[in-house]
Amino acid sequence: MSVPPPPPSNLLRFRAALAEPILASFIAGGVAGAVSRTVVSPLERLKILFQIQSAGRTEYKMSIHKALAKMWREEGWRGFMAGNGTNCIRIVPYSAVQFGAYNFYKRFFEDGPGTPLGAYQRLFCGGCAGITSVTFTYPLDIVRTRLSVQSASFSGLSESKKAGQKLPGMWGLMVQMYRSEGGLAALYRGIVPTIAGVAPYVGLNFMVYETMRTYFTPEGKKDPTSIGKLAAGAVSGAVAQTCTYPFDVLRRRFQVNTMPGLGYKYNSIFDAFRRILTQEGIKGFYKGIAPNLLKVAPSMASSWLSFEMTRDFFVNNGSQEPS
């Protein structure tokens, strides 16, 4: 008479739950977001300062290395990391929701568990994942932008600093915006151009990465090496950012649209598009793209590599018997 196997322990059930693809991707996505943003924080902030600088402003009209040196002279290490704490608080749930949602949506298109998707299916699932993650975390994104801008040496902003006004932190700024700029709507200002840019960006990112991942996988192997994953992440990020960058500029402009001293007040997306085009030309839609492309390779490469390593750890750990 055979003895029935003992029921699985709580530890085994917990490890099995963490190994579920959606939950493992959710946790790994959060880790990937924090790692990738911290690695490129100075270039991320510099990109934002370039983006929000309108025609006629010269404070940051200089090369990347000179702008970084200016930031270091005026603000030191804190200038390089300005807004990064908020960015990590934002990017952990944002990246977690994005990767988790992608794995959720792709289940509707798989012929079976783990079946590869077609290029357009990856694009669609990635777009849906981008919209989902933005909707959940957008107030943290707009506050991060404000924190990145408020201590910079733009003349109109400097006047308030000279007057002895203490700059608010993340939660203080969020409360201030809510109370003085229109309630909840203030925390979602710029979300329309954001979604318009994020949906194709995230879709392209997933589509190109999974395509390049196959390209960098050695013959006879299931997965690429770590170098191959880094290369695939760098290529996917560069392609996606270049294609959708004008939407990112519009997003940043609207996020600081009500701040004094920046030289513009846009009435609508169409008004912003028209005025940027007439006052700044096509180049206006690509302000900050140089530091952005410099950061995109290490950012997306480290993001995808840390995501896959963390996800594989949970999946493999959940399939092993505890010792």
Report the mean per-residue pLDDT as an integer: 81
CATH architecture: Alpha/alpha barrel
- Going by helix content, strand content and strand pairing, the class is mainly alpha
Number of helices: 12
Share of helical residues: 55-70%
Q: Any idea how many domains?
A: 1
SSE ordering: HHHHHHHHHHHH
Largest sheet: none
CA-based shape: globular
CATH class: Mainly Alpha
GO molecular function, one term: metal ion binding
Pfam families: Mito_carr (PF00153)
Family: Belongs to the mitochondrial carrier (TC 2.A.29) family.
Membrane topology: Multi-pass membrane protein
Quick structural gist:
One of its GO terms (molecular function) is metal ion binding. The protein is mainly alpha-helical and 323 residues long.
Outline the structure in words.
- The chain has one domain: Mitochondrial carrier domain (Mitochondrial carrier fold), CATH 1.50.40.
- Helix 2 packs antiparallel against helix 5, helix 6 (about 120-150) crosses helix 9 and helix 9 packs antiparallel against helix 10 (about 225-255).
- Helix content is about 70%, strand content about 0%.
- The protein is mostly helical.
- The protein is built from 12 helices and no strands.
- The protein is globular.
- The two termini are about 25 Å apart.
List keywords for this structure.
12 helices, mainly alpha, 323 residues, Mitochondrial carrier fold
SSE blueprint and pairings:
Elements: H1 10-18, H2 21-39, H3 41-51, H4 64-80, H5 84-105, H6 119-150, H7 155-162, H8 170-180, H9 191-215, H10 226-255, H11 269-280, H12 289-318
Helix pairs in contact: 1-12, 2-5, 2-12, 3-4, 3-12, 5-6, 6-9, 9-10, 10-12
Family: Belongs to the mitochondrial carrier (TC 2.A.29) family.
Keywords: Calcium, Membrane, Metal-binding, Mitochondrion, Mitochondrion inner membrane, Repeat, Transmembrane, Transmembrane helix, Transport
Subcellular location: Mitochondrion inner membrane
